[in-house]
UniProtKB/TrEMBL annotation:
The entry's keywords: DNA-binding, Transcription, Transcription regulation
Protein name as catalogued: Substrate-binding domain-containing protein
Hydrolase recorded as keyword: no
PROSITE patterns: HTH_LACI_2 (PS50932)
Signal peptide location: none
SMART domains: HTH_LACI (SM00354)
Cross-referenced InterPro entries: HTH_LacI (IPR000843), LacI/GalR-like_sensor (IPR046335), Lambda_DNA-bd_dom_sf (IPR010982), Peripla_BP_I (IPR028082)
Molecular-function annotations in GO: DNA-binding transcription factor activity; transcription cis-regulatory region binding
HTH lacI-type domain sequence ranges: 3-57
Keyword Transcription: yes
Amino acid sequence: MAVTIKDVAKRAGVNASTVSRAIHNHSAISDKTKEKVKKAMADLGYSRNSAAQMLASGKAGAIGVIFPPIANKSEQPFFMKILTAINEEARQNKITVSIASGHTNEELLSQVRVMYQEKRVDGFIVLYAGEADDVRNYLLADKISFVIVGTPIERANEITAVDNDNKLMGAEAAQYLANLGHKKMAFVTNTNKGEVFHERYRGFSEKIQSLGLSGHLLNTTEKLTIGETTALVVLDDILAIKVIQGLTERGVNVPNDISVISFNNSVFASLIHPYLTTFDINITQLGHRSVQKLLHLLADPTDFKEKVTVPFELKVRESTKAVN
């Protein structure tokens, strides 16, 4: 029979959550306890990298990936890239991946219920956050292990999440443009919903205010009125490309007339000129860490919930320039 965390805990004379924290080198665990756990693992032949051992007998040996109930998923390269990363990490841990997708919340909930109740999967990675929905309420109510990619607005203390610091990213975008000499900026969005929009815009807005500069919100569902604005912070790369195309049609040149900075560093960011200055949100690491955290929860469902923050990096390209 495979050695489990509970076996290690019994051998070391501690509880299972202490073993989990020791394995992840948590600062709350003393070096003495970590050494005790390490010895117990060695004595029992426990391997923290073996999902086959972590997933107890009778489990499916598979995880579910829940896509958001939106129609245009294929237009968002984020989803395919993170799914690739999730598959890579799952394969390394000898587990399989199943996908849950639906056009509505009701369809999605029905599929998730069937997948779990028929023991096709042991837990889920949810690729959307924000306000709670029926799917998340079901997972919480039935105490099903899951990890969210994003930052939940409600019941965050009960949920393990993997995300970037979107507020900091918004602030960094404004600061970078300010360093180039831009004094009048705008944040461009095509939605006023979702945690990503709210956090990125909040970071942008607060940084603009702290610098004493001019900044406002523009929505692409209406005609963009640029006015004296010299720089745009756009919600994501796909929208940024559409904005640049619209500006070009009106005779506005990027970056000579106006600078554009975006987020996600998708494959489209360097396909057409001007190449986008954009934040790389490290999608591969988001996918890998979400699988790692889910396996951790499957090994010890009672362990503490936390938010894992993945670092980002600004990729400076052609769509931004200093003000003359």
